[in-house]
Amino acid sequence: MISKTSHIRPINGVNIYYETYTSNPHKPTMVLLHGFLSSSFSYRRLVPLLCSEFQVIVIDLPPFGQSENSLTFLYSYDNLAKTVVTLIEELKLKDVVLVGHSMGGQIALNVAKQKPEIVSKLILLCSSGYLQRAHYGLIMSSYVPFFHLWVKTWLARKGVTGNLQNVVFDHQLIDDEMIKGYTQPFLDDTIFMALTKMIRDREGDLSSCDLKKIEHPSLLVWGEEDRVVPLQVGKRLQKDLKKSTLISFAKTGHLLPEEKPEIVSNHMLEFLFG
To answer: Catalytic site residues?
Structure first.
């Protein structure tokens, strides 16, 4: 039987929400990191398929999900990775399999760069890569009073359903549960203030030079219809990550954990144990 526990823990000056799923405490640990504008909710279909072989920990990266929408936290990828590292160390975890979707993939890569000894393998699902820092003009505009309302308007221009249609290939998968799950974290306007700060804090993604120094065995999984992080990014990551394997699925978009959980979990387990 799988035991689920929810936690809120102060880490690196911010309250972090995370969930643990355990069927056997002696199993190795897998830590899952979600993407931009997402949360632990995005892994709800994938987690049950992994719990037979792993203790699974799913983290809400601030300011998303149920983690704190702090207006003082430094929302750089380096600091988000530091927060994940600190949580892993406080939980006394070793040889963690680190999984990251989209933005979470870039955070996972930063963790591997910062503390390579705590990570055994990396699994990157449609990971972001090679993005530059926000344009100087946008960063300066973010200091304008009430800029967060522009952020809210910009994110809401297509609505939650429209945004989901952009990241999911088969629109029939979009149901009321999915719409509610991706809407809930954005009902508090504080998150838009935090996202405004994230525009200022976020540095660029890791460079090719940095990526080539990461030597962990890595599995890259992609949707061939991904319109957010195209497959070409995965092919470039494969070249830069020394020990990486890339697989892709036809008729699949960006939201892999939602769209193909069974197939993805099978490839993950084959990569880890095959």
So the answer is: 102, 254
